[in-house]
Amino acid sequence: MSNTPGVTPEIPQLDPMRVQVRKHAMLNAIEEEPRRRWWRIAVPASVLAAAVVATTVLWTPTNPSAYASWTAEPRAPGPGADSVVEKCRKLIAESPTADMPDWPETPTDLTIVDQRGDLTMVLFTGPESEQSCLGSPKGIEMAGGGGSPNGRPPLGSARFRMGSLGTSDPDPGQGEPRRTLVAEVGAEVAKARVSTDDGKQVTATVDNGWMVAWWPTKAKAISVTLYNSAGEVIGTESAEIK
Amino acid sequence: MTDEELWGQVRAGDGEAFGQLFERHAQAVFAYCLRRTGAWSVAEDLLSVVFLETWRKRASVVVEGSLLPWLYTVALGVTRNHQRARTRYEAALGRVPPHDADDDHADDVARRVDAETRTRAVIAELEKLSAGDREVLEMSAWSDLSQAQIAQVLGIPVGTVKSRLARAQHTVRGAFVEEAL
After folding, report:
1. What CA–CA distance (Å, rounded) separates B65 from B68?
2. Helices (H), strands (E): how many in chain A?
3. Beta carbons of B92 and A41 less than 8 Å apart
4. ipTM above 0.90, yes or no
5. Dihedral of the CA atoms B105, B106, B109, B115 (nearest 10)?
6. Mean pLDDT, residues B12-25 taken together
7. What is the pLDDT averaged over residues A146-160?
8. Out of B15, B22, B180, whose CB is closest to A31?
9. Is a pLDDT exceeding 60 seen at residue A57?
10. Among A55, A81, B43, B51, which residue has the least CB neighbours within 10 Å?
11. Segments of chain B assigned to CATH 1.10.10
């Protein structure tokens, strides 16, 4: 303690030019506001939607890896999944965006339960948005999601449409990174597998016209391979959000 | 013009008036964010976030006297969870031209590094306090706010400000205490 500085460390003046740069960037941003409702900032990169509503952090210093039981292949949901579903439903309903006038309507339809080890990912969908939520014995938190107040156009004859690619990237010491991919799939898609740029092959859970896959790293999704019920490859899709 | 007068224009949608408030208070908000985070570039981003969030909530904010108590309120919130705040305003922050390191003089780089080193040393010491005690001590030491204003910013009674400040000062003795008084 004797070698520490005072509680009010001296802070140099900001460069006046940087202040002006920041000011003008800010003014440009707020001038666009009437033309672009603020949800639009969030929805295309649905990472943001997830970040806005994120609540409880699973990781704690005494739990070095909340994702230790994660597996690339999902398994059948266990008896604890129902509890996670209800907690997620409540979490989503009470999220700060739930009552926002320009935010897509909160999804309420339970669409997928994805189980990997003791980690349960739940996907709710609705006419205007989708939202996933991750639960484990340690706690519960929002994952990826997205949507639009204008609703979602029908998938039609398409086999695949990216929904969102959520990223959780906490500060060092505050948790563990995670990516969550949510997409719509056609009726002929029985299985989907995500390839990531760190070499993972993550099998998604597919149900009710949707797929969910997540992995406990910041690795980017490169592609999604789609299979039919006979196990044949019926397509390979980009994981980019268009 | 006073903050109150400018704020009246801001509430009517005047971006230029908001720009004037930005110029007036940017340094104070930046200093607070840097002392809280210990990272220069993060503090610069959070400075923008604080003002963008203030603009977004302009219709519901009433300013009496200075805008600073409100700015500190927002700054406290965004520094509590700065990753989430930065993510929310990612689109706007993306428009800020990156600071070109090649343009920096060595002295500028050195003073940034020095400032980060100093603030991180203080942060390390303050982490010995509870979050509540720490926020009171920080607000008391780093702003010109009265104890009543600090109570308003933190959403706690004035008596709690006093008791937390006394406890924090007791824990963090030495050079810290004199400066916080």
Report:
1. 9
2. 4, 12
3. yes
4. no
5. -120
6. 90
7. 82
8. B15
9. no
10. A55
11. 130-176
